[in-house]
Hints:
Layout: H1 12-17, H2 21-47, H3 51-62, H4 64-79, H5 87-93, H6 104-111, H7 130-152
Helix pairs in contact: 2-3, 3-4, 4-5, 4-7
Amino acid sequence: MYKDIPVYQQSIEYAKQKNELEQWRESRKINLELKKYLEDNASKYYNTHRLDELMNTIVENYGVERSMYLIARTVQYKGSYDGRFFKNVRNRADEFSFPDMYTEVAMEWKKRGFGDSADKSSVYISDIHSCILNDIFRVLMKLEQKQDHTQELGGMNLG
């Protein structure tokens, strides 16, 4: 469905300057659709021991990169105070960049005491239980590693 559409990883300000606002909007729309899907289904699949089924669905429809990108925003937000995220999960999530956190408008609003109100990436932060997100992200990390290894072998999938 969307797995071959790249994640737009620049800020809205950059998108406006480069006349790429449509790509920014499309990527954001897909990200929010993935967030809704996860919020509607993650607990149900996790609690019925069908995490593999959930993972197959999100990876097939949204891809590993977008799934990690979306979840990374929540891990970054909650990771500093929520010890249920494993260290390797927090470290990998911290490698993702969310430039909308640092736009001039977002920084000005923070200075004025409005918190993350102007941070366009804050809508990606989810209330899904941290243990569930931790496990989903760990599976995604393994899939990412497998993809990287397959690419190193010239696209040959050796199992």
